[in-house]
Design brief:
Layout: H1 8-12, H2 20-25, H3 28-44, H4 46-51, H5 53-67, E1 73-79, E2 84-88, H6 102-112, E3 120-122, E4 136-138, H7 140-146, H8 149-156, H9 161-169, H10 196-208, H11 213-228, H12 232-238, E5 244-250, E6 261-268, E7 275-282, H13 286-299
Antiparallel strand pairs: 1-2, 1-7, 3-4, 5-6, 6-7
The structure holds zinc ion.
């Protein structure tokens, strides 16, 4: 996805771009360069970040506007408390992020089945999975790592929807309508919509609960997704075991319509996330959008220096 990265000169000419910092200081490129240095300093001195949250937020916004000006990219960057550090999302209209919903289906299923999960055999296309040849037999962690549709369709079938809605509400999620097809709980279809901020905060809560047995298994699946699964471009950009990630591919919501919209959520660093980045990239799959997410965090000073 290199075309998303452009030089500052072309960034300034983009008509849709929010240019708050540029308007304020007049020299956006040099401001962004300074901000980048401050940002890297903030990574290495967490206390400084805590002391200057406003500065960190301005820096992050400036760096991302400079390095990722493409109008095909939408993003939200949050700190661990849920505060928005940087954002570019045209509206806070609710979105269906494809497989990004799967971890919350897992929690609802776990609560209704005593925390026990099946092994499922994915036959590929005939199991409605995105991988034509199929994933074979998989358990919960591997199903998250590979984002196997067959696995989550089985979890969604027969779920008590009213009970599930109560579980989702604890994460600030409204869930699909009670009469929507169960496949929406597995990220197929577009009947499960939440605002980007709601999705981001639900992921923060999930990761904060990783002492719980089911949540810890989801986090393990997300760690492996970034390492070798659908989100492996994240660790490729940031280093081994750098992040937790999940991908989603959804029907494109733009006009003119593209083949798909790719979503990625990344929590960084993996061991104790300080940042959550949610991205949507128009016209690509979730796995491809992950390359952009990895590059963005790298641009913010993440990864092996
Ligand atoms: Zn599969």
């Amino acid at each position: 996805m290199e075309p998303l990265r452009q030089e500052p000169q072309s960034a300034q000419s983009h008509p849709n771009r929010k240019d708050k910092n540029a308007a304020r200081v007049g020299h956006p490129a040099s401001w962004a360069a300074l901000a980048g240095l401050l940002l890297i300093a903030a990574w290495t001195v967490p206390a400084q970040q805590a002391a200057e949250p406003q500065l960190f937020s301005q820096s992050a916004q400036a760096v991302l506007e400079r390095d990722f000006p493409s109008p095909d990219l939408s993003y939200l960057l949050l700190d661990a408390s849920g505060k928005v550090l940087a954002e570019r999302w045209a509206t806070q209209q609710a979105v269906s992020p494809g497989s990004l919903v799967k971890p919350f289906l897992v929690i609802a299923y776990g609560e209704q089945h005593g925390g026990r999960f099946p092994t499922v055999r994915c036959l590929g296309t005939e199991s409605r999975c995105w991988l034509p040849r199929g994933h074979g037999n998989l358990g919960l962690e591997e199903a998250i790592t590979q984002s196997c549709n067959a696995y989550f369709l089985q979890l969604a079938t027969g779920l008590d929807r009213q009970h599930a809605a109560q579980t989702l509400a604890r994460y600030g999620l409204s869930g699909p309508a009670a009469d929507a097809a169960a496949e929406n709980l597995a990220g197929l279809g577009d009947a499960w919509k939440e605002t980007p901020l709601a999705w981001a905060k639900a992921y923060l809560q999930l990761v904060n609960e990783q002492q719980s047995p089911v949540q810890s298994r989801i986090v393990k699946g997300m760690l492996d997704s970034a390492k070798r699964g659908t989100a492996r471009s994240v660790d490729a950009a940031l280093g081994r075991n750098a992040a937790l990630a999940k991908t989603g591919t959804a029907a494109c919501s733009h006009t003119p319509q593209g083949a798909a919209d790719g979503f990625t959520v990344v929590l960084y660093p993996a061991a104790r996330p300080r940042l959550l980045l949610l991205v949507r990239v128009h016209g690509v799959t979730g796995a491809e959008s992950t390359r952009v997410a990895g590059a963005m965090l790298r641009s913010l000073g993440g990864g092996e220096q």
